Amino acid sequence: TQHFIGKAHGKIILIGEHAVVYGEPAIALPFKAAPVEVSIEKDTGPVSVSSDYYTGPLEDAPGKLENIKVLLFEIGKELGQTINNLFIKITSHIPPERGMGSSAAVSTALIRALFQYFNVQLNEEQLLAYIDISEKIVHGNPSGIDARVTSSDAPIFYKKNQFFEPFPINISGYLIVADTGKKGQTSHAVADVATLFNDDYEKTTKLIQNIGERAIRAKLAIIHNDLAALGTLLSQTHELLKELTVSDESLDHLVDTALKAGALGAKLTGGGRGGCMIALAQSERYAMVIKNKLIEQGAINTWVHALEGE
Ligand code: PMV
């Protein structure tokens, strides 16, 4: 049987999380070390799926796969096809609920595979519109960054509800991503930053602006291949995020561990309060040393991601 394959990858926020909620810019990176593949083949009978959560007829799938049902319905309608007789296999290497964009990446790969199956050209605008349908079901009010980065090969500099600007990576370094093993608590962290704003408007405004400035300088460091400057900006931003109260002991411990093991910089990534951190290394050899230290110090999962060549 012929397989129709759609691919996508995870995302990480390099810098600017939380401040981006208040209109500052941020940078998100495609995270190729965490790929997703959806394979579709012809089958008999109703649509069935195989995934980490569930294997069986799509009709009986748990609520978690609701977005997939809706996507198939909408795409079928658009293409004038009854979607039946398909077997959909989802293979994701993105851990869920870690702020890595797993839902957007699965949607991207599924949409790409379906359009291939029906032999219809898919443009970027259509792709983003379909991912948005799915993300609204999964996340309610998505910022749209996951949709763009999981389907793109370029880093994206963005301001919420204003612009998404892809830019070239011109820097040769390695990012180590480490999972604390604690589910990230993005919504709590975002709510607590809002409270901090009420309690001390001036101080919080200053922190947010300082993070935004560093996101702008990080983009320049990436364009000018200044790895050391990028590292410093990442570490400084972790300190600012700590002051915003969105870090926690597990993240701080892994950040310290990475810096002691020779990282050029390190910070939490995404919502904070658990979830993941990132560290920057100048070579693959350093990256492996840092990765091993992070595992020794409690990271339950790590990835090494080459920045070059994106
Ligand atoms: O959890 P993630 O990686 O999708 O990132 C959340 C980023 C925040 O800035 C904290 C929230 C947001 O909506 O931008």
TrEMBL record:
Domain GHMP kinase N-terminal: residue ranges: 77-146
* SUPFAM superfamilies with a match to the protein in the record: GHMP Kinase, C-terminal domain (SSF55060), Ribosomal protein S5 domain 2-like (SSF54211)
Annotated ranges, domain GHMP kinase C-terminal:
221-298
Q: Which UniProt keywords apply?
A: ATP-binding, Cytoplasm, Kinase, Lipid biosynthesis, Lipid metabolism, Magnesium, Nucleotide-binding, Transferase
GO CC terms, sorted: cytosol
Pfam families named among the record's database cross-references: GHMP_kinases_C, GHMP_kinases_N
Q: In which pathway does it act?
A: Isoprenoid biosynthesis; isopentenyl diphosphate biosynthesis via mevalonate pathway; isopentenyl diphosphate from (R)-mevalonate: step 1/3
Any one of the GO BP annotations: isopentenyl diphosphate biosynthetic process, mevalonate pathway
Instruction: Identify a single GO molecular function assigned to this protein.
Output: ATP binding
> What is the name attached to this protein's record?
Mevalonate kinase
Species of provenance: Alkalibacterium gilvum
